[in-house]
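Collaborator request, handled under Task 6.
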Amino acid sequence: MKIGNIDLGYRPVMLAPMEDVTDPSFRLICKEQGASVVYTEFVSSEALVRDIPSTVRKLQIKEEERPVAIQIYGREPEAMVEAAKIVEGAQPDFIDINFGCPVKKVAGKGAGAGMLRDIPKLLEITKRVVEAVSLPVTVKTRLGWDCQNKIIGDLAPRLQDCGIAALTVHGRTRSQMYMGEADWEPIGALKADSRLEIPIIGNGDITSPGEAMAAFEKYGIDGIMVGRGSIGAPWVFREIRQMLDLGKEYETPVSCKFQLLLRQIRESIESKDERRGILHIRRHLAATPLLKGIPDFRPTRIRMLRAETLDDLEMILDEIQSKYFPI
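Structure tokens returned to the collaborator:
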């Protein structure tokens, strides 16, 4: 599969853009674990144009991450065009437009998935961004605003006509947020649509190698994107690649999983400071499947998520590994 002239290889598996998750450290770890493409946290066009330092920092990428995409969102065409030009200066491999974020502070203000209620403006933004930059431009969106307005089948060809290089679709509407199961049938229908020549990437509920393989086999899509299934589990990319490339299950050794979590903790602290780094990494520790289903684990879990120093966290994780995962 290619995006522009960028060859992403056979059945690429991408790290989805996620706010407060896909920082440089996590992106690089996922890349090392087998992610074909990584995306930055999504960047507000308005904040970028206003040169807000915390937003500008999101444009920092490393050569080792490539191919890497920077994703922008906003509701005003002029700001989106200006932001795209600024992003181009950061030299990502391509630029992605976020028309899919469902959270209230984004969609409720008309950006992200909120653009699905204003298709003329959505298309205007897409066309103008494509024309403003020389990099490939892609779009990530949802099936529609709600179940009565699943418009992706009609929208996709119009986005292609705007000049985008690929389309990623999350198999839910905005009103569903992340509830229920993702519906992949409309995504498969896009791939079967003879009007569409651009790559179609599916997103939603991919958390295991079996689900990844099934998505490719059943729906014929060009690529998949893994989001929440990677939080606290960057090794999922290596396991999926083993299934796709070799056709067999691969279980990451428990010791390697703990090492990756410890690396995330340390690098989070290095990039911020101890207090903010630990606050940032708690989302990964709370979500990691490594610690799910352990009997009588609640007191230890509370200690882990309340730990305030690196020493305490390292000690607790060492205790967990020794007690629950003895060699």
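The cover message to the collaborator said: "The first helix runs from residue 24 to 32. The mean pLDDT is 96. Please let us know whether this matches your experimental observations."
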